Amino acid sequence: MKKETQTGLSIIIFAVIVLFIYFSSNSGSDSTEKKPVATRSGIPNLGGKSEAELLTDCQVDIQNKLSNPRSMDIIYSDLKYKKEVNHELWLQFYAKNQLNAESKHTGMCEFDDNGKLLNSKFE
Q1: I need a labelling partner for 69 at 20 to 30 A (CA). Which of 23, 87, 93, 120 fits?
Q2: How far apart are CA 36 and CA 14, in angstroms?
Q3: Are the beta carbons of 123 and 105 closer than 8 angstroms?
Q4: What are residue 80's DSSP bridge partners?
Q5: Burial class (CB within 10 angstroms; exposed 0-12, middle 13-18, buried 19+) of 103
Q6: CB neighbours of residue 14 within 10 Å
């Protein structure tokens, strides 16, 4: 074979290999498609977030409202799926007040279908 033919053939083979690798790595993986997240309660995932991520978002938001945020100790949490627009995460926790007395509280966070925290409250 002539040297020019070998060079041209090498370039074509290289281009085919590059295209094969590119298309095989992108096949079946749509970046806009989110994979479902398995949840403990069997409730559909919210915006691709797991229950642990929702609980963390809720905990951080409620902790910011406590007088002694570091004292928060969650004892129970439960995600409630409602057929309405928003979903609720309920949790029970202990926290200390300004006088360093520990008391039990119930908190609730509301999330939309995308997993965005809408509001939180506790008593």
Answers
A1: 87
A2: 37
A3: yes
A4: 88
A5: exposed
A6: 10
Average pLDDT per consecutive 10 residues, the chain (123 residues; last block may be shorter): 67 74 63 54 71 90 94 85 75 93 93 90 94
Cβ neighbors of 47 (< 8 A, separation 6 or more) are 34, 112, 113, 114, 115, 116
Question: Which pair of structure tokens corresponds to residue 33?
Answer: 């498609």
Q: Specify the 3-state DSSP secondary structure of 90.
A: strand
Residue keyed to tokens 């060079």: 7
- CA 15 to chain CA centroid, Å, is 39
Q: Where are the domains of the chain?
A: 1-33, 51-122
Q: So what's the pLDDT on residue 114?
A: 86
Residue 44, SS3 per DSSP: coil
3-state secondary structure of 100: coil
Phi, psi dihedrals of residue 103, rounded to the nearest 5°: -140, 160
